[in-house]
Amino acid sequence: MSTTRLLSPLHNYGKFQSTASLTRQKSAVGGVGSRSVLIKQNIRRMATYKPTLTIENLNPCIKVMEYAVRGPLVTRAGEIEKELEKGASKPFKEVIKANIGDCHAMGQVPITFIRQVLALVGYPKLLDDPHFPEDAKERARTILKGCRGSSLGSYTDSPGIEVIRRHVAQYIENRDGIPSDWQNIVISGGASDAIKNVLKLFICRVNGKKPGVMIPIPQYPLYSATLSEFDIDQVGYYLDESKNWGLSLQELERSINEAKKQCNVRAIVVINPGNPTGQVLTKENIQEIVKFAQKEKLFILADEVYQHNIYDPNSQFHSFKKVMYEMGEPYRSMELASFMSCSKGYMGECGLRGGYAEVVNMDPAVKAQYFKAISAMLCSTTFGQSTLDVIVNPPKPGEPSYEQFEKDKASVLESLKLRAKMVADTFNSIEGFSCNPVQGAMYAFPQFKLPPKAIEAAKKKGQAPDAFYAFDLLESTGICIVPGSGFGQQPGTHHFRTTILPQPDKLKSMLDKFAEFHTQFLKKYS
Amino acid sequence: MSTTRLLSPLHNYGKFQSTASLTRQKSAVGGVGSRSVLIKQNIRRMATYKPTLTIENLNPCIKVMEYAVRGPLVTRAGEIEKELEKGASKPFKEVIKANIGDCHAMGQVPITFIRQVLALVGYPKLLDDPHFPEDAKERARTILKGCRGSSLGSYTDSPGIEVIRRHVAQYIENRDGIPSDWQNIVISGGASDAIKNVLKLFICRVNGKKPGVMIPIPQYPLYSATLSEFDIDQVGYYLDESKNWGLSLQELERSINEAKKQCNVRAIVVINPGNPTGQVLTKENIQEIVKFAQKEKLFILADEVYQHNIYDPNSQFHSFKKVMYEMGEPYRSMELASFMSCSKGYMGECGLRGGYAEVVNMDPAVKAQYFKAISAMLCSTTFGQSTLDVIVNPPKPGEPSYEQFEKDKASVLESLKLRAKMVADTFNSIEGFSCNPVQGAMYAFPQFKLPPKAIEAAKKKGQAPDAFYAFDLLESTGICIVPGSGFGQQPGTHHFRTTILPQPDKLKSMLDKFAEFHTQFLKKYS
């Protein structure tokens, strides 16, 4: 309990279940004709048949699990969109979903070369079409050759198609300048899938004590949700907002020492570049973390899905693997899982579900069990795997698609860099706001002050103050953000996460609306 | 324990971990140069650094989990393939993977219309290409309109793209002639994913007792693997081989009464058409099961992924939903989850990972929690969703692709029908074999007698007798099947599962080789 306490309680943030049932009732009550028949039928059904799976005997770990990025605020945003479609009058014309790192949904255009390869592997007849460039065809032929029966419709080996795993290892070698073994690569349906499959390994009580995993606060809620589901203790360590969301050794020590009374701390998660916080860790900071993990015998999970998203000219991405390797023994031999995704970077192919884990120095007996566990899910999607292949093996100088690819990539990253600055600058210009620079990733996580009257009003509504603020923002402006309480924050502080993904014009108008809303909000509760 | 006892112990079947490490050692020892350096490095590493995640503190549920379809036999088959590539001399030229329902890997050709739609949604520039038929373009435009930012690269709602969920509901309505609510449809990355997400809900101790779920024996090992992982008791009920693998009420009663002493039996899984057993349940048999489930207050999980694969002219697919509905109250109001997949049927698109669950009469509060739980994994792959869309909304009469599509589909199913008969007939002609007719699905599960000397030899090797037989078959002929002990069988009986998927010529030669092997085997151990 002392460890979960570190996470701001999410239970007051909004009640998913009751919101959902409320909506259902409302729409039923509002209806006529066949709907009222439905209600009667439902009432009759309820009277004659009691369900066997009820909220009382449902998996308790699922009940406590929260996933704010898709929580009640997002549900409400979806409802508002439908109301707008039906012609409802609102003070805005559209909902801006700044709650989720969903690049293409916000107008980013897919990289042509990726989609050409996907069309070719999916429908190989196109290999005869002269409109497709030769390098795309070469990629497609290589992937198809790696598939049984030369079809994307075949199951692959559970850790993925061998040639793609080899390309991933080569990509990592090129990135870090140190060896990578393709047999350590496990391709997955997005990074989330890979992360869950590694976290699952730690579910084990030793001497009656639960396992615990250290996660940053604020964190990406996949971690808190997964740890809840697996009944693993969340051991939160606070990122230092005053030091640009860096990790302090002192805080790591405080966190683990407090947690050790309750659980066996087995692993540490680090998100770099940070989500929701946007920081890029320095090499020195990573070295400190590695030393700490070594001293405490922790398995390191490095969430490095934003490795392409670095905007600050003074920042650089350092992989945990490289830093560990360069530190020499014993650090070089430590266990590490590093995660990467097709959903972020310059490609933003979220819906295709591609990603990988590189698992370093895992005990061979454990690795065999890990591979066995993923085999029951057969394999990850071949289109996701193919997308990953292009990302780790993009067009090379001299190949026909090279220039266009590099141009497309640079254009996305350059625009994100401008937007990162625009967002942080705007928030810093609003009264009561402070926002660290967005050095990397796709989010800003500003802190803001709320007047006591607003906090009181939130309390009355049974909501966390920042959730109260976010709901008001959504209803007034159509802007959908995620309250800081969904990620965790220092008690008494208020934050939210917004993506930097709306296209520049829309982002500008969103930020203008935001500033105006905030002025009105302060007036209302002053 | 009394419930798991019903499953033949899988532990003797083969030791995944030790086989794997053995292989690793062998290949290391066999190597020279850089490999011996590697060994030295590994030894040094082992001496200086002890891993923190070990087999001792690994998730115990993963350790006991088994997944025979991808077990040690398949690992060995993969090794043999590599040995053949390197020119090893064997009594055969290729490995025939009859272990897994992997249609395209065995030479089945993708349905053109499906792949045309996938090429169009993946690379929408092709919408201008006059070579693509208009109905494929219409499907692609509808899917793209359902995606945020009109891109497959966007996240979808967690239960899937609305328009595809609506098409699935329409497909079910057309199939059953009774209403289906699109909001009960949850699209998933293959049926396995959907099944795990529903089974997960039952993890809950009540009055200190573990939950239990009834599964058929023999069963598809996804169920045993998932229940192991979730620490849910497996409550096995035997299918009646003498009654064409039907379900007997008496056996269901025996099974649940025995299990009730140990656990709370919460749900029953029925696989229809059967895997690995190939039976198609009669309507009367389904009615009996429904009545049993109602009496015992069980949630029904109907694995109906082979609903298109019916070969016996006297058999017909009856969905659990339709049968329940037609039985009237209280059966009509019972909770049911039915599963479907893009991997089977006539399409066999295993690698694309598409499927769905239709969840009927679920308590609204539970459903809200279920939807919340899947939201943490964001969404299933958009290419898998698009594949599903084509399957539930195929070309209609009058549309340009209609005739070709129907021809492609009929040709696959007709050929499978012939092969189903060929396989059962051949096994029935071999001494000591008996095989029920393959009425549906993609597998035969023949029973065969083993001479006492062979059973003794297996014992000496620490293997289950049918695994011993299967390894010998693999090494002698290259044919890879799955021993019956991987699915469960009556104690003292021996079975294996083979797919009917090799193309007709190859299947004929495989069966010939099989018969020859068996004769030699009997001679060897007589």
TrEMBL record, chains A, B:
Requisite cofactors: pyridoxal 5'-phosphate
Keywords assigned by UniProt, alphabetized: Aminotransferase, Pyridoxal phosphate, Transferase
EC number(s) per entry: 2.6.1.2
Domain of life: Eukaryota
One Pfam family, short name: Aminotran_1_2
Cross-referenced InterPro entries: ALAT1/2-like, Aminotransferase_I/II_large, PyrdxlP-dep_Trfase, PyrdxlP-dep_Trfase_major, PyrdxlP-dep_Trfase_small
Key word Zinc present: no
A GO molecular-function descriptor: pyridoxal phosphate binding
Catalyzed reaction equations: L-alanine + 2-oxoglutarate = pyruvate + L-glutamate
Pathway linked to the protein: Amino-acid degradation; L-alanine degradation via transaminase pathway; pyruvate from L-alanine: step 1/1
Domain Aminotransferase class I/classII large: 148-510
Enzyme class: transferase
GO biological process: L-alanine catabolic process
Complexes and interactors: Homodimer.
Family per record: Belongs to the class-I pyridoxal-phosphate-dependent aminotransferase family. Alanine aminotransferase subfamily.
The protein's name: alanine transaminase
Primary gene name: LOC114335126
